[in-house]
# Entry
Amino acid sequence: MNETLPLREAVLSWLEHARTLQPTPQAITDVALAALPQWDLLEDAVAAAAHRDEHPDLYDKVDGDWIPSFSALLGESGLGEATRLIAQDADVPLFEVADSFVAFCTGPAPVPERWLLLNADLPRKTRIQLGQYTLQTFTLDELRQAVPMPALHGLWSRSLDLGLITDAPFLHVPDPGRKVTRRPTWFDLTGPRAGAQHWQALLPMILWDSELLRVDSVFTVARGRRFDLNPKDVPTTIKIYSVPYGKEQESEVRDTGDFHVPEKDLPALTVFCTAISSKIDAVMAGASHRLRILNRRARRLERAARHLLAAYQRTYTDDTVWEVEADELHLDYVIALEALLISPKDDREGIANNIRSRASALFLTPERQKAVGDIVHRAYKARSTYVHGDVIKNQTEQEKLEELRALRLLTRQIILRWLVLTPSDTHDLAPLLDAAAQGTGREEHIDRPLRAFFTTTPPSSPPADITAT
# Structure
């Protein structure tokens, strides 16, 4: 005999009883439902099918005794919502609800995860491992398996349109310390903004392509228990389709931004992101090392990445930056450059010149080296103007946006090349760049490694200075 059959029969009996309930809101709250005599029968069936030693998350201690938790069984499972819909004469698939409830009670408790919805368009069935994170696009069936009580979706006002996020790109990572509950979280004070908190998974994608990539929302998922993405957290746009007889039809779709990866590029994206993720992990392994240079190197990479991602998150498009934040973005980019290119032996008076020289040395052609030096020089000038409380003059708004875009693209290129060239031993990159700027060891330490990496592991668009040599 199937051990879960009595539980399934009990929940079906409960759902049939729901048809007799008064549909007034106060009569069908979870608290009111748990006070009904019929609830005791379902509670007993749960206790028989899902013992506390195997499913402790389904129980609460009341007056010294462990009993099935009505907040878990009604709220987290979705059974309470199904009951309310039935009481209000909604057409609810009873057998699907019963099967979902049985699986909720008898299945293992899921590990909570953090999911990041990205404003990007990636191929279907994308799945790339980035350290602890997974970059994935989910099919509709996979999303239905992740949400609690999938049979109810589309039947109640707070349902999320799963079609809106089908094939959307998500970064997800286990977060076992996070509490599993369907209660809404009004404030998330668990750490810094998403870009900074999850930079190790986001950085490889940003280094792959020059188009802007941002995080649209961050939410908690406990598959089959909780899926707290609010419909309002999915940016949408109107797409116009041509239909027969010369007419047009509008449809609301997810706004995918400009970060687009064609299906033919998915293998290259996978190889690139895997390689960059490994390099990031190698550097960050030094964060707890006793050697100061390895520890400092990890902190410098993290600082650079956090500031780059903070700037990305505040840049909606290359032509859409809040004027009051434009100067602050200059500051973010300059801090990122300094974090990677400064040396402990630098004289404070000459830092700007050193950063400009080392940034230029990361590029292979004289034309690009000069252009990089000019961009860094202007960035430092803008940074100095801003931190001293002045306003950057003699620039139109369009010129300022173009300068910010050039600085953004340069910063991501410098981070990428720093990752490629940074020694895995206890040496520092700064002296190698200083020597290269003077014409010493350039081919061995800079040019050859960069050409090798961009040849075997190219990003979406190989840099012009690499292809020109």
